[in-house]
């Protein structure tokens, strides 16, 4: 029952981070290397920053990022296991140590994983389908099928899928992203094998 | 494509058990919000479970389960979930923060940490001692409605016969003070669409909707089909709705194009914030739906975040069965630039179709269309 869709622009980013500060430093260096001017990047939490870097690498492969901007037929499906932990922790720590009245709205707003979809939508002016899934080690078959479901039941022609995992900001930081296309017949076919490669952390 | 029918619904929170009781309360227009009384904290109203209710849930299911798992178990079983269903059913868990109250610096390192959203499904598998099919979705305040939409799509495409969409979120300092830092907490019980509205009231609980491929009267009352739905993004701002309601408009237009009808009643998102309610009124006007009888339900139990879309859909389906438009609790005088067809008191009209909307942080919008059958 599953129809085909094809994989384009497979992208992987992995970093090793000592702590949050180290991660932020590395993400800023990586941003500067892109030579893209997008000041909003500085406000993002590290999860969104990582997704933004992966998106630019994925869709900017042939210098045609602009070609994808403003399309209503591109959806986003992102996933990870730790949700927005990297922002949840500082928000919870402030509450514990200093009380509720000093909580920061600029931290709190990033305590939802789908802010990643929101930031990418703003950057790319995408008004289409968006979804964030929480996955675990055994989710790959389900994820494989879920992608097919979205192609069958929504109006999207292309789906940007990504595993974006920052955890608590230390250790191995990973993003894997690719663009799935309903129509094109070149490229590798979406398969359970690829789904597994996308969502399985190397950090076992 | 298969048809999708709404079979049963449940709401588990600090109020009585059974959807009928919740509906009765909804008809009477009683707010279940109470003031926050913690020391030094005079502002805000919330709805939460009492310690007694938590204890009775722990006695029923065991002391080892987290609050979210307890609520989900109760919500699932209340809609007739059985772990040995053939063919197996799908459970879609919708939550923004899950058991966030269990987050600590000490356990944040652990891959098995109890606060993780994936832990809710894990606990359900432990309780039922089965490898259940579970998907966990976290898309801010549209999570609940999106779980219903995805569940319906899994049935439409023949992948499952039955899907349980279950939404859950807790009342926690984490979210309360977060929204407070946004100055988004109302110092009175929330007043959706009212001229004096100043923000949200938070609620906690779980709600479950059982969808199936075979026609069956919802709660034994009236057959209601899920017909179509859509998810869009504002692509405008991560924490505020777009001023012109563009994302919501696009989702509504998609549904209007796919459905063969214009909805006769609307169950709005209606958080009670200045910006959300204003945005919704503009979106309704832009889609020609501002005169359609409408209602918002957050004045009763507050904003239950990931559970809200399912909790409110369940009450809306009961409203369809009863041919009633519930009163929008907290609403007296229109406070949006386009007045909507709202009333503080319930009224009776005959109608066959309903639209449910939600919008949330991250710019998401989700719209669902329901229709009576037979």
Name the shape of chain A in a single word. Answer: globular
Strand order of the largest sheet of chain A: 3-2-4-5-1-6
Principal-axes geometry of chain B comes out as globular
User: What count of structural domains of chain B?
Assistant: 1
Q: Let me know the CATH homologous superfamily of chain A.
A: Thiolase/Chalcone synthase
Q: Would you mind describing this structure in some detail?
A:
The complex is a heterodimer of chains A (204) and B (374). Chain A has helices at residues 20-34, 46-59, 65-68, 85-98, 105-108, 115-124, 140-153, 192-199; strands at residues 6-17, 74-80, 130-134, 158-165, 171-181, 188-189. In chain A, a hairpin with a 5-residue loop joins strand 4 and strand 5. With 204 residues, chain A is an alpha/beta fold. The two termini of chain A are 33 Å apart. A six-stranded mixed sheet of chain A has the order 3-2-4-5-1-6. Chain A has one domain (6-199): Peroxisomal Thiolase, Chain A, domain 1, CATH 3.40.47. Chain A has eight helices and six strands. Chain B is α/β, with parallel strands linked by helices. Chain B has one domain: Thiolase/Chalcone synthase (Peroxisomal Thiolase, Chain A, domain 1), CATH 3.40.47.10. In chain B, the strands form three sheets. In chain B, strands 1, 4, 5, 6, 8, 9, 10, 11, 12, 15 and 16 form an eleven-stranded mixed sheet that branches. In chain B, a hairpin with a 3-residue loop joins strand 9 and strand 10. Chain B is globular and about 50 Å long. Chain B starts with a strand and ends with a strand. At the A-B interface, helix 4, helix 6, strand 3 and helix 7 of A face helix 4, strand 5, helix 5, helix 6 and strand 10 of B.
